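Q: Structure tokens for this one, please.
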Amino acid sequence: MNFKTSIATAALALVISAPAFAQTHYTGQELAKYAKVSLEQARATALRAVHGAIVAQELEKETGGLRYSFDIKVGKKTYEVGVDAKTGKVIENAVEGANPD
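A: Here is the predicted structure, written as tokens:
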């Protein structure tokens, strides 16, 4: 394997794995100061619950408080995983239906 091939292989690996951890932007950032669990901690919890690639993430107000919501793509399915922003516990883990939120 030559140098150019090595660089191309490394770049491809980074692009393929990037969606699972590289997203830093999310909706609801203005609520982060009220969360006890960081986005990084919630993301790690969500990815332990569903092994895939995060394609969307947000911090949102719910009736019971704040929650992080992650859409995680696994094959052709997308799962919605909710993580409580106070306790860090998974509060939702379901395949999204035909009409996602």
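A few notes: Residues 3-23 have pLDDT under 50 and may be disordered. The domain at 3-95 is CATH 3.10.450.40 (Nuclear Transport Factor 2; Chain: A,).
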